[in-house]
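Please check these two lines:
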Amino acid sequence: MDDLAAAADVSRRTVFNYFDSKADVVLGPEHEIPETTVEVFVAGGPTGRLFDDLVHIAVEALEEKGADLELVHLRRDVMRKDARVLAIAHERFETITDQARDMILEREGEDYDAYRARLLVQLLITIVDSVLDRSDADLARPLPELVDAAVSDARAVLNS
């Protein structure tokens, strides 16, 4: 909390004037996928390739949150050190996973297995985690470039 307050150039007390809890400060507001994005995805877009379309949504979400990678790393460090914040983050990831799974099933139809859809989302979450690992080495590297590198490596690993 002290690091976050210092990064914002405010006192710790000021931080808590604007946020109810440490989890709210660290994780920020819960992310909601814009309805237009859901509609485009369910209709088969924007690229027509299921995984690429999920990656597109993930990049949009990261960029929407401001993708200040230094702040993301700071948040990640706090999560790793605070079991309560980590548990809340896990709950949020479960919610996101369920929402994305439902979007995939709506798009792909009843024949697409729910376990397969969930696995696809979990792979994407793992790729996003890899993006954060990669950005440790180079905070100046553009986010889409980091995502492309991680996706490329994931495809190579899965095809080997």
Q: What stands out?
A: The CA atoms of residues 67 and 143 lie 8 Å apart. The chain has one domain: 2-158. DSSP finds nine helices and no strands in the chain.
